[in-house]
């Protein structure tokens, strides 16, 4: 059996499609744990109208937030496998079966996602690019290598072993809860893979928490990734780095490393106005002419433009550097 954890808040207008997509699953041995997080509409009453013994509604008296709702849902799960779902989203009829079979057949994999379609990205180029990018990351190695670029996994598309929560703890309030959990698992060596099939439809409504909750501000994502990057650098014995990107944003977020004792020994850029100058008494290198001077340092690229990111990767790899060994992409 699978335990599906679905937190909801004022979701009576769209929860029906989500539940119906679960009832059409080829795998029907599941429990659906819906945590009603203090809804002020008739969400709970509507859900109970299904009269389905597999549905367990947990109603919280007041709105406590998604982190508490998720943790409460998982605490009440009786299965060894947890599938995530949100009220806006839809599952392909084979989603649960394929993810369940994959985890059962691959005991070394701790969690599995799938490719997703996003229904509301036509007006949002950035979101469409993000979804397209995540859909290219399938293998454990691709997900791990790109973990600091952006979150490489769509949260409600995930299925994972409950034992991961027992061993590494539940969702945290400190950072964006899903991204922090993935980075925590990856830091501890958990292998996460993504199925190549499109088994999930992810909706992106205007009221989504990533747009309204300050915990999902860009600065919080960088604080989260810096926390786990510093742990990784320390484990590898890397105390000195150079930062690719001498612009304001790159300098701002790279500076977070200083709080962890990481020394920035220079910056790399293409802007002739910056080359040869210093930032905090550290030189700004030309990416090509000064390669020999900075190539002995570990390189962290904070350049967020997706096209330029690929060019930076290609440039460094052409010169014998390896992604994840000699450099990492941070944006």
From TrEMBL:
Residues 3-167 form the Glycosyltransferase 2-like domain. GO terms for molecular function: glycosyltransferase activity. Coiled coil: none annotated. Keywords: Glycosyltransferase, Transferase. Transmembrane segments: none annotated. SUPFAM superfamilies: Nucleotide-diphospho-sugar transferases (SSF53448), S-adenosyl-L-methionine-dependent methyltransferases (SSF53335). It holds the Pfam family Glycos_transf_2. Belongs to the glycosyltransferase 2 family. PANTHER family: GLYCOSYLTRANSFERASE (PTHR43685), GLYCOSYLTRANSFERASE EPSE-RELATED (PTHR43685:SF5). This is Glycosyl transferase family 2.
């Amino acid at each position: 059996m699978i335990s599906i954890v679905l937190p909801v808040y004022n979701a009576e207008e769209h929860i029906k499609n989500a539940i119906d997509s679960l009832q059409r699953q080829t795998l029907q041995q599941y429990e659906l744990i819906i945590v009603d997080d203090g809804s002020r509409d008739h969400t709970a009453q509507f859900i109970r109208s299904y009269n389905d013994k597999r549905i367990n509604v947990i109603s919280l008296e007041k709105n406590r937030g998604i982190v508490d709702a998720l943790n409460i849902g998982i605490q009440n799960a009786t299965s060894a496998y947890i599938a995530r779902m949100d009220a806006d989203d839809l599952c392909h009829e084979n989603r649960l079966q394929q993810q369940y079979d994959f985890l059962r057949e691959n005991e070394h994999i701790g969690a599995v996602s799938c490719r997703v379609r996003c229904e509301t990205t036509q007006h949002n180029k950035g979101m469409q690019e993000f979804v397209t990018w995540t859909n290219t990351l399938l293998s454990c190695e691709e997900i791990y290598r790109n973990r600091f670029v952006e979150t490489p996994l769509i949260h409600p598309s995930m299925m994972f072993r409950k034992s991961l929560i027992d061993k590494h703890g539940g969702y945290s309030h400190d950072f964006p809860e899903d991204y922090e959990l993935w980075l925590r698992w990856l830091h501890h060596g958990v292998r996460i893979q993504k199925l190549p099939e499109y088994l999930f439809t992810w909706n992106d409504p205007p009221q989504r928490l990533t747009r309204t909750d300050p915990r999902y501000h860009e600065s919080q994502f960088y604080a989260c990734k810096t926390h786990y990057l510093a742990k990784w650098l320390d484990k590898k014995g890397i105390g000195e780095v150079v930062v690719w990107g001498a612009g304001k944003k790159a300098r701002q977020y790279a500076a977070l490393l200083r709080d962890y004792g990481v020394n920035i020994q220079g910056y790399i850029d293409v802007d002739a106005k910056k080359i040869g100058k210093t930032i905090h008494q550290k030189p700004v290198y030309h990416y090509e002419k000064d390669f020999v001077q900075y190539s002995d340092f570990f390189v962290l690229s904070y350049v967020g433009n997706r096209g330029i990111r690929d060019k930076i990767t290609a440039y460094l790899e052409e010169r014998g550097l390896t992604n994840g060994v000699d450099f990492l992409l941070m944006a």
